[in-house]
Here is the input.
Amino acid sequence: MKLPNEIEEYLASKNFSVNTRSNYYYDLTSLHQFFEDKPISEDTLALYKHQLSELSLSAQRRKISSANQYLLYLYQNNQLDRYFKLDQVPQKTIKQSQGYHPKLKEFPEFYGPLTCPGQFLALLILEFGLNFSEIQGLKWENFNWKFKYLTIEKSGIKRVLPIKEKFALRVKAINNADELFAKSRQFLYIELKKFTDYSSKEIREQYILHQVKAGKTIYELAGLLGLSTTATLEKYYR
Here is the structure.
């Protein structure tokens, strides 16, 4: 039995972000390329899984999860006469010294009354995972305070990020944010440094860690960050 190619139909049935859709498309295209000249069976699926063993553990788990969801879709839509499923690769126990284990932090000092530009910058990074170039591309009109979301457009990709109430309470009264967004990267760096010893990279990593803790998948997180691939996020899912 050949593996039916229903990738477009499958993706259309899901409410994926643009980046998540792109990642699933990449994984499922690879799956179909493997089965291009092979029938789908338990044996060929085992060969496919063996081929994945050259990848990192997190990449293997992601691709197997993508394949299983797709195979279930095909079965439920009568495109396959039985449900094929790949056994997931077990998580390995990794010693603390061998893996990447940054510590999750809370920043109560960021959420006091707003007193300086550096505090505003710190909140933008911690709440939305923005880097300086993305902050420079913001406009105050991107913040929708009525419906609590922030719209970011980068490289033709639009992201819509939820605004938490605790952020809105401290920030929405600002009336000169566009002036700050127009400043140079060096200016933003200096203002952040005046407020906290944490770098923008360290604060952004805390955004990532909090999203992982909240249960976001690697694809969902890549979408939130506007990343075209998940490569830089894999270390957080090992």
